[in-house]
Amino acid sequence: APPRALTEGARGTGVTHGLADFLAQEELDRYEGFWISPDGRQVAYESVDEAHIPQFRIMHSGSPEVGGGAEEDHRYPFAGAPNPKVRLFVVPTAAGDAGAGGVPTPKAFDLTGPFGEDFYLARVQWLPDHTLVAQVLNREQTELAVLQLDPSTGASKVLFAEKTSVWINVHNMLKPLGTSGKLLWASERTGFRHLYVYDPATAGLAPLTSGDWQVEEVAAVDEDAGMVYFVGTAQGEWLGRHLFRVPLAGGAPERVTDDP
């Protein structure tokens, strides 16, 4: 079948659909601007409005070309100046109204609840129950809220939040744990990054790991065995990195590798 548009109205307006905004790429290590649901029936996408941001000319001083070949113009958000206006939509992949050229009608999510209009969209992912989870940061990047979004209604709610006096380090360690609604999470709320399990029944975060050492990344989640494998440092061994595993039900982490 030929390609079919799922969105419209962005071309030539200073708006993009399905592309990560510059700040997400530069500051937050996020390069995706759309997310396909596991069943392929829906697509969540980022809409970015940069029309209010002035053009800034970047010169390529090392370029062998001159004139237009040695320069490019971008809508560049400077520190303290307005940021792009970011919104999140979801759209069905089925064909829409023929009168609208077959483009389906998108549904918008309100992400402004935690921090108002000036926020960063840090992460988006689908959950097994066909809802979405989005991580949003305040502009100072000292607060982060994890939102659950319902594509059927457009409703959003805060599951949990992080706050620090210094800096939130965004990561990719949020993992759904089956269809229970529980989420694996990593937080630096103790001063060291450790793993937690969010339980919707209590709306709380229970620690899986703790101590004066750091979890670097989640390597795998073995739900059948009830284990999380992660890479991290060890108590008193800050220069080495090892693979560990820890039971999802709680217990002491076990080091899997010996060589650094």
Report on the architecture of this protein:
This protein is mainly β and 260 residues long. The protein has one helix and 19 strands. The strands form five sheets. Strands 1, 2, 3, 6 and 7 form a five-stranded antiparallel β-sheet that branches. The mean pLDDT is 93.
Structural class: mainly beta
CATH superfamily of the largest domain: Dipeptidylpeptidase IV, N-terminal domain
Q: Number of DSSP strands?
A: 19
Q: Helix and strand succession? A: EHEEEEEEEEEEEEEEEEEE
Name of the level-1 CATH class of the largest domain: Mainly Beta
Average the pLDDT over all residues and give the rounded result: 93
Unreliable sequence segments: none
- Distance between the first and last residues' Cα: 51 Å
- In the residues, how many domains can be counted? 2
Q: What is the helix content?
A: under 10%
InterPro entries: Peptidase_S9B_N, Serine_Prot_S9B/DPPIV
Domain Dipeptidylpeptidase IV N-terminal: 4-259
Organism: Zooxanthella nutricula
Pfam families: DPPIV_N
Question: What can be said about this structure in brief?
Answer:
This protein is 3% helix and 43% strand. It has 260 residues and is an all-beta fold.
